[in-house]
Design goal:
alpha/beta, Rossmann fold, Helicase, Ruva Protein, domain 3, 2 domains, five-stranded parallel β-sheet, two-stranded antiparallel sheet, globular
């Protein structure tokens, strides 16, 4: 598949130079994270895309895959406030967003803000908390504000929620409703490291003593500036149509010569899929120091954006067909521009 630089009235050379300058910190982040993280490039890439595209990320993987370490390390290298929240069945919304406390001396209520007032929130095992707590977090994700008493407080930017789920344990959990999962830009599945990576992990971690100290390589205000540059990245109308075709193929497969998927897809991807495919593709192009989006940028992040937005039918589940299998079939059939 040959991809050529787009022909457009946009000054691509000037934009390219701007992106080269603005995206130089990406390599600095990779180098710094390599001090404590072995492998997991896929997870780091997707977290950076979420950061650049202002989208929340849901991470799913068994314990011990460095999800918490990666998120906390990322917060350190971009010099932002970080809060880790361990979600449990007895957690209350006030434990998350804060509450009003009565001051007897002053005879008035004062606000005690909760840990959600940070830039990067790690919601560990989000499916272990009851629906009220999940709703409080997801409302903050959508509205970028929380209400305590009669007052609404805006959240600081950048504001990014990175939530984890353990796919193994199901007892004592409260699965997120599909409508709430849809608010996450991406859902990424974290796999085990390779044999060589695990050997390196063992050699590094099988020691006692002080851990490696990470230094900030970029300030949070520079991240906000980078987001503005991401918005300027050129995306051709043909690539935009390709995004629409991928999403609509999940809703009306028969219109894309995918009749066999009609009985396998219960609900297709929502309009948030189209929006987030566009945003994530731009962010991916930015990380590649490119001033324009290619169809390959869309294909690279398509599963992460759509896997949690497609609901297979019972027939599909009976045949062990997952949403990822359906996306593979769609991407293999829908014509690439």
């Amino acid at each position: 598949m040959a991809i050529n630089q787009p022909s457009t009235d946009v000054d691509m050379q000037a934009l390219g130079e701007k992106i080269d300058r603005s995206s130089a910190f990406i390599e600095d982040i990779y180098r710094e994270l390599e001090k404590v993280i072995v492998g997991q490039r896929y997870m780091i890439d997707r977290l950076l895309i979420g950061l650049l595209a202002d989208g929340h990320v849901l991470l799913e993987g068994v314990p011990g895959l460095a999800k918490t370490l990666t998120v906390s390390s990322l917060a350190q290298v971009i010099s932002t406030d970080f809060q880790r929240l361990q979600f449990t069945p007895d957690l209350l919304p006030a434990d998350l967003i804060g509450t009003l406390i009565y001051n007897q001396k002053e005879a008035e209520f004062t606000v005690k803000k909760g840990p959600i007032f940070a830039n990067i929130i790690l919601a560990d095992e989000i499916n272990r908390s009851p629906a009220k707590v999940q709703s409080a977090l997801l409302e903050a994700m959508q509205e970028l504000q929380v209400t305590i008493g009669d007052t609404t407080y805006p959240l600081d930017e950048p504001f990014l929620v990175l939530a984890t789920q353990n796919p193994v344990e199901q007892e004592g959990t409260y699965p997120l409703p599909e409508a709430q999962v849809d608010r996450f830009m991406m859902k990424i599945n974290i796999d085990y490291p390779s044999e060589q990576e695990e050997m390196e992990i063992m050699r590094r971690m099988a020691k006692t003593g002080k851990n490696e100290t990470l230094k900030p390589v970029i300030a949070s205000d520079k991240v906000l500036e980078a987001r503005q540059v991401v918005n300027e990245i050129y995306i051709d109308e043909k690539v935009e149509q390709y995004i629409i075709d991928l999403v609509f193929a999940t809703r009306t497969p028969s219109n894309y010569r995918l009749d066999k998927l009609t009985e396998l897809i219960n609900f297709g991807a929502s309009p948030r899929a189209s929006i987030n495919l566009n945003l994530a593709a731009r962010a991916h192009a930015f990380m590649e120091h490119r001033a324009y989006v290619t169809p390959e940028d869309v294909r690279v992040i398509a599963k992460d954006v759509m896997r949690h937005r497609i609901i297979p039918t019972f027939e599909a589940e009976a045949e062990n067909i997952t949403s990822e299998d359906l996306i593979d079939e769609i991407m293999g059939t829908v014509q690439v521009p």
